[in-house]
Amino acid sequence: MDIGIVGGGINGLCCAWMLQQQGHSVELYERHQLMAATSSRSSKLLHGGLRYLENLEFRLVREALRERDDWLARVPELTRPLRLLMPIYRGGRRSRWLIRAGLFLYDSLAGKTQLPAARWHTATQISEQDPALRSADLRGGYSFFDGQMDDQALGLWVAQQAREAGALLHEGCEVLKVDRSGRISFTDGTARQHERLINVCGPWAERLLANSGIASPYRLDLVRGSHLVLDRPCPQAYLLEVPAEPRIVFVLPWQGRTLVGTTEVRQELEAPVVCEDNEREYLLAVIRHYFPHDDDAGRVCGVFAGVRPLLHSAANPAQATREYALHREGALLSVFGGKWTTACALARKVSQNLY
Q: Has residue 305 been placed in a domain?
């Protein structure tokens, strides 16, 4: 079929790559540059989503873990296994047995994997490895493995695979509206007709339907995630409980520095996507709590933020589902939500819903 795709983030690019490989003729339209927005402003993780088990999202976690392993095997030059540690302190919100049970389930859902299983470490072992970590009330912790990647480079690698397969990827090509017949109209006054049209433009998917006079079957919650880059090495990747909150913050090695994130703040579609001062202080407060002897406030050498399009499911963004949904009307297929790690799985489901 002749297929048009609106959106040049990781989900759109994986759709273009897979559909072109299946023998379709694919053209993708991106209003700015490929991988220039949300998809290049992630936490740089290929992961199953350990936190999602608390929301009972077992299907999504299983799928994401399998996809994590596929990315690691397929593109080793842009991905790597990453050992993360979740320290446990007296008075923490999650008990040792709860974390142990969650990690056992996480390993079980992964199935056959080359990554090591979770392990317990004593407080002494953890302090010896990273003396800067707060040792007061430390009981020990669990380590486990996920994957890390260069999100922009990996997305552009996918774009190159799609091009080599024969897909046409257009940048600087803004779509004005779409319709159920497969017709796509551009802001320059031109239009194209496709047999199938895929609306996979992330945070803008619902707005594109509204601009086209098409009622959206799903509502999107736009949630901003901000990150800090600290000018210091990171000897160990961590998942850290935010003091007095159920949220988790990542502390990760990134290009010789330390990446800290993320926040979860509701975002208006037209508002600037920037890390605000209160988000910066929120993340630094977590760092000061766990690394009390480091003056990291003066080491912030970079900030970035991205918008996650989550299916509307809860008042608290931290409790919102990370699942994605597809909806087809005529020749138009719209994608709502979607994680970086599961982009290829989403593309497979898109291909199954085109007929």
A: yes
Residue-number span of the structural domain to which 22 is assigned: 2-39+152-219+320-352
pLDDT tens for residues 204-234? 999 999 999 999 989 999 999 999 999 999 9
Distances (CA, A) of 353 to 79, 211, 244: 30, 24, 44
What's 251's domain CATH number? 3.30.9.10
Q: Is the peptide bond before 262 cis (omega within 30 degrees of 0)?
A: yes
E strand or H helix that includes residue 267 = none
E strand or H helix that includes residue 129: helix 123-129
As a whole number of angstroms, the distance between CA 111 and CA 109 comes to: 5
Mean pLDDT for the stretch of residues 339-349: 97
What the block records as the tokens of 277 is 């001062």
Tokens of residue 268, six digits: 């208006």
Dig out the tokens for 204 from the structure: 């803008």
Q: What is the pTM of this model?
A: 0.95
Burial class (CB in 10 A: 0-12, 13-18, 19+), 208: buried
In the chain, the amino acid numbered 179 is D
CA-CA distance, 31 to 8, in Å (whole number)? 8
Residue 98's closest CA among 288, 111, 106?
Answer: 106
Evaluate whether 37 touches 180 at the Cβ level (below 8 Å): no
Residue 314 neighbours by CB under 8 Å, 6+ apart: 320, 321
Task: Tell whether 201 and 225 lie within a shared domain.
Answer: no
Phi (first) and psi of residue 214, to 5 degrees: -115, 125
As to burial, measured by CB atoms within 10 angstroms (0-12 exposed, 13-18 middle, 19+ buried), residue 59 is exposed
Question: Cα separation of 259 and 300, whole Å?
Answer: 10
Contact between 285 and 211 under an 8 Å Cβ cutoff? The reply is: no
> Does residue 35 contact residue 12 with C-beta atoms inside 8 Å?
no
